[in-house]
Amino acid sequence: MTVPNDERCSPSTCNLLRDMRDLTDLFISKNAANEVESDLADVSAAYLSSTGLDYSTKVAGIRERLALLPSADLPGHQGTGDWVFEACRLTAMIYTASIVCNLPLSIAAHPSQNLLWAEAESLREPHDRQIVLTTHLSELLLQALERTDLANVWNGMAGVLYWITTVGAAAARTPVIPTMLQRPLYSKPCKPRVRQCLAMYSMRAFVLLGFKHQMPILLSQKRLFRVQELIGTYG
Could you tell me the superkingdom of the organism this chain comes from (predicted)? Predict the structure, then answer.
């Protein structure tokens, strides 16, 4: 993912996108290193331990920063009313929980399964917290997206929109591996319209980017598929 230079991209949004790019790099690199190390009998335990510790420390920092980001619908902060930021934040919540907890996107999007989401929303009033903790994250994501200007496919941020909607559409699927659930799904199943809309926006962004940035968008798509493969499912 390339961090865009666009007027819609606030400093908070840029920092968040950098963290998501770094998280992707860390996750793919760690697993690539593990595959190599598994073939080397003489790799020292100390080296393996230090590599794992470095990964854990960096990912913990990303997770902590994400959990501290307030929602755009909460007053009194830099991101208040910034729905581009909110769409990025919601996607990051799904994506990060999927990687950190080794959950399919479709399960990480359920609030009852997403520990990061519970941490981030703990500052809300009880009534509001009950709503966000029982609403599927892909639904909240679509609501945020529909408060932005989608007619121009976010112009210079079309690549970000593609990432958001692709993750959101995958997360809106019905989970296909119920044995992976850590807790009951207290949120309602995602409405079919949500996945349809997110998939449509994803395709629009993909087509637009395909004309101007064919290779970068294909590489971005490949990396996202690789992340899902490493997690163990395309669900």
Answer: Eukaryota
Residue 188: what residue type? K
Q: Is residue 97 a contact partner of residue 21, using CB atoms and an 8 Å limit?
A: no
Instruction: For residues 97 and 182, give the distance between their C-alpha atoms in angstroms, rounded to a whole number.
Output: 13
Contact 120, 93 (CB under 8 A): yes
Q: Tell the residue number behind the tokens 């073939």, with chain if given.
A: 39
Apex 194 CA angle, 118 and 154, nearest 5: 90
What does the alpha-carbon distance between residue 34 and residue 114 come to, in Å, rounded to a whole number?
26
The CA distance from 29 to 32, in Å, is 5
State how far the Cα of 108 lies from the Cα of 76, in Å rounded to an integer: 29
At 79, the amino acid letter reads G
CB 116 within 8 A of CB 100: yes
**31: its two tokens:** 């697993």
Residue 120 confidence class, pLDDT cut points 50, 70, 90: confident
- Residues 190-208 have pLDDT tens digits of 889 999 999 999 999 999 9
- The structure tokens listed for 58 are 């960096």
